[in-house]
């Protein structure tokens, strides 16, 4: 706690700017792989959906095939009845019995026609479902191949960046330790609320790099003196002079180059 009290404002500003550079580098690493986990998850969801759909269609096909079998059995039974009724007509004793059998034969013929109509419709449905299954299978193969590629890409990026991110995170903690909790909290709050997570802005051509609003000359002098922490009234970012920013960038570039 004593060391933090003795830290000058300039040292705090440098620590804040260094922390910003490190956090921005971490952001870049996370953004690099940022979309990939989402893409992998979306592909996995799509593959699961396609698989479920294909399983349902396959089950429907089996059910349709069973329905066709039942319709064929019904048609065969009707043909058997027609044959029986036709034979019985040869042995009838009167017209009433003959007409009654004729009606039964006519009814069974209608049953056969209806069964054949249903069979035709069911076969058309089967062909349609088979076509959808074939298209889904082709799509599934493509998505699985794409998923394998994306997973490989993500694994490669993770392996490349895991070590660097861990080192940077530890280094960021070192710089946070140089700052009092109040200042760290303010930095984190600003970073959360501003675009691109940039909590620190430099003075560029007399304006804040965060908002591009002109900074009054007297305020610019105060910022350059590094005697107190000043925030941009428009963007809320902590302001540092360009010279300090350039010096810290050169220092951190050397550190990044060793990673």
Describe the protein's topology.
Layout: H1 2-6, H2 9-89, H3 95-177, H4 181-193, E1 200-204, E2 207-208, H5 217-225, E3 238-240, H6 242-257
Parallel strand pairs: 1-3
Antiparallel strand pairs: 1-2
Helix pairs in contact: 2-3, 2-6
Explained architecture:
There is one protein chain. The chain contains six helices and three strands. The chain is mainly alpha-helical. It has two domains: 130 residues, Orthogonal Bundle (Helix Hairpins), CATH 1.10.287.1490; 78 residues, no CATH class. A hairpin with a 2-residue loop joins β1 and β2. α2 runs antiparallel to α3. 14% of the residues are buried. The model has no long low-confidence stretch (mean pLDDT 91).
Keywords:
259 residues, mainly alpha, Helix Hairpins, 2 domains, 3-stranded mixed sheet, 80% helix, rod-shaped
Give me a quick take on this structure.
80% of the residues lie in helices and 4% in strands.
What is the second-level CATH architecture of the largest domain? Orthogonal Bundle
Name the strands of the widest sheet in spatial order.
Answer: 2-1-3
Structural class comes to mainly alpha
| CATH top-level class of the largest domain | Mainly Alpha
Helix content: over 70%
CATH topology of the largest domain: Helix Hairpins
């Amino acid at each position: 706690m004593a060391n933090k009290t003795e830290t000058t404002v300039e040292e705090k500003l440098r620590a804040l700017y260094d922390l910003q550079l490190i956090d921005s580098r971490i952001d870049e690493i996370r953004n690099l792989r940022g979309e990939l986990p989402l893409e992998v998850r979306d592909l996995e969801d799509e593959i699961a959906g396609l698989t479920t759909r294909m399983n349902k269609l396959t089950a429907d096909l089996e059910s349709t095939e069973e329905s066709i079998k039942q319709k064929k059995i019904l048609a065969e039974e009707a043909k058997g009845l027609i044959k029986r009724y036709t034979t019985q007509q040869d042995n009838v004793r009167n017209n009433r019995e003959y007409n009654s059998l004729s009606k039964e034969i006519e009814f069974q013929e209608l049953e056969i026609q209806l069964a054949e109509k249903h069979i035709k419709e069911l076969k058309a449905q089967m062909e349609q479902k088979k076509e959808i299954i074939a298209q889904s299978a082709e799509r599934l193969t493509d998505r699985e191949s794409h998923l394998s590629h994306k997973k490989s890409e993500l694994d490669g990026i993770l392996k490349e960046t895991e070590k660097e991110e861990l080192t940077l995170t530890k280094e960021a903690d070192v710089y946070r330790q140089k700052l009092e909790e109040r200042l760290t909290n303010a930095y984190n709050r600003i970073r959360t609320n501003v675009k691109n997570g940039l909590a620190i802005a430099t003075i560029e051509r007399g304006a804040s790099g965060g908002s591009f609003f002109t900074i009054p000359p007297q305020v610019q002098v105060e910022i350059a003196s590094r005697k107190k922490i000043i925030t941009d009234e428009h963007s809320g970012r902590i302001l540092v002079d360009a010279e300090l920013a350039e010096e810290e960038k050169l220092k951190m570039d050397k550190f990044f180059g060793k990673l």
